[in-house]
Please model this.
Amino acid sequence: MTLIGGLRKLNKRNLRHWAVLLAVIVGIGGVVLGMHQIDQQDKQEVAATNHRHARQTHAVIAKAAAISRQQRNHQKTAFDKANSGKSAPKFSAHLRQELKNRKFVGTALVVKKGQVVYQQAFGMANAQHHKKNTVRSQFMINSVQKSMTGMLVMKAAQTGQLQLTDKLSQYYPSIPGSQRVTIRQMLNMEAGIVGQLRPATTLTENEVYKYASQNAKVDAKKVGQFDYQPICYALLAGILHQVTHDSYYELFYQQLVTPLNLNHTSFAQLRTTTKGMTLGYAGAVPRDYSQPHKPAPANLASQLATGNATMSAGDVFRAERAIISGSLLSTKTGANVLHERDQLIHYAGGMYHLDNQRGYYGHGMGDDYESTFVMSHDGQTGVVFLSNNFEKKTMYPEWSTEGLAMATFDHIMKPMKLK
Model:
């Protein structure tokens, strides 16, 4: 064989190798392209489903809100008006300075013996649109909403639709250990239920209940001990849905918003159509409006009954006053049952007991909002601070107004007249 012939054979063999390699590369490329197209298609389908579910929930809430709006009295009250505190100038000046020292952004309300003694708004509701906060601005109230869910459960108990001694297994038998715990324990966060509410997609109301039941389990070691788990209240909402056959949102409007004429209460899903809705702001220090934040629809959906309601400070006060006094229940003793306490219980029915039986308080943080209320046993004296510029990870506890709300409450509870 000549040298030239040998080279020709070698080149043909190399060409065959290159052809095979090229075919493999093309094949792999085709597979990768196909997988990319499938992935893109999956993402588009998920996005479309998320949008559809968000629209369905929006429609349910909007319908309940519209019915409530037609039924409510829209007359303004003292809770709808700013009050600079002229009746107690020294107290008001001190509180105003304390709030400014904390760079507070939001609404501060103080009520003594049923009378508004101070209510002022601070900072921006929407910096980009140059909208300032007002005393009618609405803020996400986060965990404060649980006290309202607790009231709805108690109302169902009074009508005989459920009993506080009912086992969770009567409603969700598939949850491991559900036969161990009662509705009463769930209200007090002593059920030992653990599980996260972090769905990757936007769920409908019924899907939230299903997701919660699939992700919940009972830790036998924690039953009877306080362990704060929001999933307890998502499951309570699911139980309400089973016994009433109504949406949680319908119950919220029918049994709380409408009878109290709460004209500055809504849900974060109605953000774009609700007058007075604020925008949350993150950052390391309050009054920095460079990081606006809108909660993701998936998060809002999963916060059903646990923290997706929005309210003004005045509406929070009026709602908590009614819940504590039992005025929304068929018998006022129901409020005492809902918020029963003993030496071991310091959280009951969605709110905390203050030490020495001074009253109640609630506190929530999330989605760059902070909410605090502190209230006397008779519901006539209290403090509400709501902020839309509070990132928990970077601002708590340094910039929190929770401690200031407590201190302010202690001051106004003293028998002497405010000066």
The chain has a mean pLDDT of 92. DSSP finds twelve helices and 16 strands in the chain.
